[in-house]
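Same chain as my last thread, 403 residues:
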Amino acid sequence: MSAVIERADKWVMPTYRRLPVTFVRGEGVELFDDQGGRYLDFVAGIAVTALGHAHPAVTEAVAKQAAQLVHTSNLYYTEPFGRLAETLCGKLGWPDGKVFFANSGAEANECAIKLVRRWALDRYGPQRFGIVAAEGSFHGRTLAALAATGQPAKWEPFEPMPQGFTHVAYNDAQALEEALDGSHSAVLLEPIQGEGGVVVPTGGYLGSVRRTCDAQGMALMADEVQTGLGRTGRWFGFEHSAVVPDVVTLAKALGNGFPIGACVARGELAEAFRPGDHATTAGGGPVVCAAALAVLQTIEDQDLVSHAATAGAGLKLNLQELVSRHDLAVSVRGEGLLLGVQLREEVASDVVTAALEKGLLVNNVAPSVVRLCPPLIVDRQQCETAVDILDAVLSQVGGGPRP
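reply #2:
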């Protein structure tokens, strides 16, 4: 065990089962460890480093801003946060939009939860505070975001959970309608469930949810923390369904590794908060906003949304061919560069470990699901190399290819 790992294990709380590797440098789609090892990064910091590691546009923007102004708090104005808010509302096509900046996806979802409760209190009174979310969903680890998360095993050590959350089957519009009892103000959904195992709904699902929300006077919130900003081959995951939500939460790729989250709302929801209703000390700081502006500009300039769609389609096809050769693999699902390989057995962690040893980073989002979410800049050769490594890994873990 290296001194770095030994020190971290001694002093850092054990909230992660970290793999035994220490990274010291990144460049593009590659990471380098302290032993000189080289890895293709198809985790991308959990769908964070959309532009890859050490992207010069982000580096330049951060260095320039850090040399001028790092922090003032939200008691004052700075130039980057207003410009970033305008840019995000422009990407969404919301001329009546407003943004709250946070430091993470969980915080963005906490903001969204508070926002719809504030809106519903003004519109309906205190009786309609409930939020419907989906089984298998993931919205964060803070207490309200955890209560919204549809994974009871994650609640148990921290119960009692905050009240007001109802969970229904994902991709089941009828289950949503049947769960409504007049106490609900909003629905919170991921356009694709990422941490739930890369689960893609049928084409008409989000449209049905939108119609139900409209009929019941409820808000629709889209958790785009993982799916947003080009990851699925569209700027936002909800665009695959031609549905317009009322609130969108973002994080991960927005800062390319710098900690920033955003809750974006339109219409009445955008005006619901009053001074003092919500706050953050560091959210929307000049440096992280400068990083985010560089990210969005680079995605636009390099047409990385279209590239993610094309590269993802090619990677998905190669993975489907891989699945056809191995009994251990069942199917491939996902959109763009957010893909999951479904395994026949609960050995995803073994696949991840074996891939690491061969120089490929993937991760297990469920006991039988391996996720691939490389940077949006990934090229065809890198995708083919990753599939070749997975081919060898599935043979190793599953006992060889199908005869």
